Amino acid sequence: MDHTESRDGTAGTDERTDDPQATPEPEPTPEPESAKKRPRPWVRRLRRTALVLALLLIVPLVAIETTLRINYMGDPADGTYTRNRDAMWLGHAWVDGRKKDADVTALAGRLKDTGVRDLYVHTGPLEHDGTLPKSVYPRARWFIDAVHRELPGVRVQAFLGDVLANGGPEGLELSDAETRAEVVRSAGQVLDTGYEGVHLDLEPLHSGDEDYLGLLDDLRKVTGSRDAQLSVAAHQIDPLPHLHSVAGFVADHPKWWSQKFFGQVARRVDQIAVMSYDTARLFESTYGGYVAQQTSLALEVTPPTTHLLMGLPFYYESNPSHWGHAETVAAAVRGARLGLSRTDPDRELFGLAPYIDFAATETNWKEFEEGWVR
């Protein structure tokens, strides 16, 4: 076998892999940019569509939130404080036997130096056929008498509510004439008990419901003949034109009424209380701006002879429809004052309505009294 001698004197083969003069292997030629793999056409179209949809959702949302934040700016006008025409929603415990004389005394102490002059005490719920068993409010007469004793001049109204059939498989059917007639009879029944008004809360109520308007006309005849109040809890008003139509298409529980329908309801009642909470606003400033907007929209279509009230969230929850850190009483009060200042600062038939007594915190009461009570 033939061998060659390596540089270090050891035997080696004829291969010259260590030879510095050996010719290197050529570098691979880069693939042209145009030859690189591109996304398929349908992938590109999907990406563009996703971008457009994101912009369509994000841009209006940012615009709305910015508008509401601006709407919360500025100072309320002097004198936009309580007109001593406020109201409050109360729970069912006041009429079913759970509350005692000491509880009424404590309630009176809490309300004495505020402007609350109407109490909406939960007396239902109505049965789905519109009837109201007397067994569900056995202590109503006791409560009415106790309030008159402890809080002279404060009215007690029967808060009657039910879920409507359009919100699920069961509920009160407003399109049924006999059901509406039973609701009217139930109203007369509570007035016979001694209540000084009927407060109706039917949800979810679609904007433009003619059967509801007809029911209010019939109820007004009953309350009017007895010199009693007819009041209702109202949905919020479209913050954008025709938003109630979009909500009604997407969900069975529309949050908004058209401003026109709100005005139609307001003209049929003595008091209308806007449920201006559960707004899904993320920030205290945008919630306050939303309440200011709602106040202005409501004032524009509520006749001066109808008492308008803006609801306050006297409770704390955190969920997609109600963020407790944002929906504060302080923001709601300031928002209502701003809306009042800009639209009708001298209006007398205006007030605020806390919801609800059994969930109220000391912070709720403090913010209400400091921001509104003078």
UniProtKB/TrEMBL annotation:
InterPro entries hit by this protein: GH
Query: Transmembrane ranges?
Result: 46-64
Q: Basic and acidic residues: which segments have biased composition?
A: 1-19
Q: Which UniProt keywords apply?
A: Membrane, Transmembrane, Transmembrane helix
Please indicate if the UniProt record lists Membrane as a keyword: yes
Q: Which domain of life is it from?
A: Bacteria
Stretches for region Disordered:
1-40
Q: Does the keyword Metal-binding apply?
A: no
Instruction: Supply the name of the protein.
Output: GH18 domain-containing protein
**Organism from which the protein derives:** Streptomyces thermodiastaticus
List the top taxonomic levels of the source: Bacteria, Bacillati, Actinomycetota, Actinomycetes, Kitasatosporales
